[in-house]
Automatic annotation (TrEMBL):
A Pfam family this chain is assigned to: DUF8044
Lineage top rank: taxon: Archaea
Lineage, top ranks: Archaea, Methanobacteriati, Methanobacteriota, Stenosarchaea group, Halobacteria
Name recorded for this polypeptide: Uncharacterized protein
Segments crossing the lipid bilayer: 65-83
Organism: Haloarcula saliterrae
Length: 90
């Protein structure tokens, strides 16, 4: 059973992702990589901004694994893009 805070967090993450998809589509830059990066930044930002000060609920500790996985995927995407740019210049 979800709590009100969990639902607000989920609604905020969904709104952030849908808003970024809308902005990317409007700008003509809608790619899977950009959607992932914007959704991951939204998750990291929401996690940081909504962190409780005194006590951490159990559901927030489960956010660690999606953040770690997202960080790894983000590092791979940035590494591949950087390598692609360096190889293309030679």
């Amino acid at each position: 059973m979800t709590t009100a805070r969990q639902r607000r967090f989920l609604y905020a993450q969904t709104g952030w992702t849908l808003g970024s998809v809308g902005l990317l589509a409007t700008a003509g830059a809608l790619t899977l990589e950009f959607v992932f990066v914007s959704a991951f930044f939204g998750l990291a930002l929401l996690t940081a901004l909504t962190a409780p000060v005194h006590a951490t609920p159990a559901w927030r500790s489960r956010l660690r694994w999606p953040l770690v996985a997202g960080t790894v995927v983000f590092a791979v995407v940035v590494g591949l893009r950087t390598l692609e740019k360096f190889v293309a210049t030679f």
